[in-house]
Write a structure and sequence with these properties.
- α2 packs antiparallel against α3 and α2 packs across α4.
- The protein is built from four helices and no strands.
- It is an all-alpha fold.
Length: about 70
């Protein structure tokens, strides 16, 4: 949740709603309600193209995490 919020607010990192959505999505996959809300909020701010990019980034990050956990 913290990384998504940090990218959303630009706290310590440049604001980036695409990465904020991706990180919030990863948290939402684990069932964290804060991340579900943040992800859904950010989705309303993104263009359809950026939402698609965000979803692709979340999928890429998830696959990388899964790969690293299997090693």
């Amino acid at each position: 949740y913290n990384l998504g919020l940090m990218y959303y607010n630009g706290e310590g990192v440049p604001p980036n709603n695409i990465l904020a959505y991706a990180w919030a999505s990863l948290g939402a996959m684990s069932g964290d309600e804060n991340n579900v809300g943040l992800r859904d909020l950010i989705a309303t701010l993104l263009s359809p193209e950026d939402l698609s990019k965000s979803q692709a980034e979340a999928a890429r990050m998830y696959a990388l995490i899964q790969k690293n956990q299997g090693e």
